[in-house]
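chain below, 217 aa
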Amino acid sequence: MQPMLRLYEDTLSSSGEARLPALPRVLFVVHGALTIGDRVIGGGEAWHDEGAIIVRAEKTGATCWRWELGSGAGDDAASGHGMRSREKLAAPVALPPGELLLRCDSVAFPPGGFAYLHTHAGPGIRCLIEGGIRIDTQGDSTCYGPGSAWFESGPEPVFAQTTADRPSRFIRVMIIPRAFMGKSTLRLVNKDDEGKPRVQQYRVYFDVPLNLGSAKP
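prediction:
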C-alpha cells in the first residue's frame, strides 16, 4: 500500500498532553511552546523523531503543525487530553528510490516575489505561515492564505507567485534522496531562467536520514 504523508494542526491547552505513536514525523510550533522529554520547543522552532512520544504544552498552551509519514491504511491516532487535532492535508507519496532524507525548511519571499517554473527531487507538503501565494501546476492555479496547505509531487513543474503587499513564507517538509543532504533540490525547467536572480530565502531546520519503519507499504 502506498505511503501517505499527512499534515495535522494540533492545538493544546495549558498543560495539555498528546501521545503520538511511532512514525517518522516533524513538529513545527506555530504559537506557544511544547515540551518533549527534557526539551522545550518554542514558537518558530521545528523538531523531528520516529519514535512514540508524549508532547506537553507549556502554561501558555501551543499550536503546532505535525507532518507524519505513515501507511495508506491509516495509523494509530494521537490521544491525550486538552488537545484538539484536525487533518489539514493527506496525500499518497511516490517515494524516490534508494536511501532517503527528511527535510524541514522554510521558504520566504519579499512582497511580489516569485519562483521560476521548477521541479523538486521528491514529494512534500507545504503550509503557508504568512502572506499569500499562488501555485500554478498541472494546468491549475490555486491561491493560498495563512494556514493553508498544499502538496507538490516533486517531478511536476510548479510556478509560484506571492502577494504584492506583504512578505510571504511557508514551512515545508519533503522526502528526498539522501544525496541531497545540505543541497538544494530545486531544478529550473527553462534554461533561460538559469543564472537569473532568485528572491526566495531558505532556512533549513534539519536534514535527517529517514528510516521508513512503519511507513513502508
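Residues 120 and 184 are 9 Å apart (CA to CA). The chain has a mean pLDDT of 93.
thats it, cya
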